[in-house]
Structures are given as C-alpha cells and as structure tokens.
Here is the input.
Amino acid sequence: MNVHPINSLIAVFVSALLSYGLWTMEGPLQNYVAVGSFLYFSATLAPAIGVDFVHARRAVNLRLVCWVFFVIALFINVLFALLPIGATLYIIGSAVTFLSFVFIANGLYGTRQ
Here is the structure.
C-alpha cells in the first residue's frame, strides 16, 4: 500500500467543499450533516483517490467499495440536509453505513490472492 499525499490532500479538500455545500442548504440538521458528511466523505474518498495498492484485484475491489459507499454517503447526507428528520436517525444511519464500509473494506484488504 502506497499513500500519495497530494492526492489524499485533494480528496480531503473535495470532501470539505462538498460538506460546505451541504452546510449551506440551511436544513434542520445543518451542523450534524456538515461534520458527518466531512468525516464520511474523507474516509471514502481518501482511499479511493489517494492510495495505491500492490495487488491489482484488491485495488479494483477496494476502490469500487469506496466509490459505492461515497455515493451512498452523498445520498444520505443530501437526504438529511433537505428533510426534517431527527438527529438520532441521522447519527445511527450514518454510523451503521460507515461501519459497514469499514468492515467490508477491511475484509477486502485482508484477503489473500
């Protein structure tokens, strides 16, 4: 595994810009969505863009999982930024999907080829 610092920094900046865009929507969970989306977007974009893996098959699978969960996070955060849904549901839903991402990505990274 090789980390590219410039690409990782770009991923973090893109995450910050997307989170700021969601924060400006002035929804009922504005601050929750800003912090939660930044953490979720950074955790999915940084490995997808800023990390190079040794094995090609593992790299393709991990990048695909990162991008799929990035799209899921984008959908969840836009949904909660626009609709008046409770903060508890947002925290639990985001945490469960984020932990599912970590579980699947860790399982894929630990596979033997």
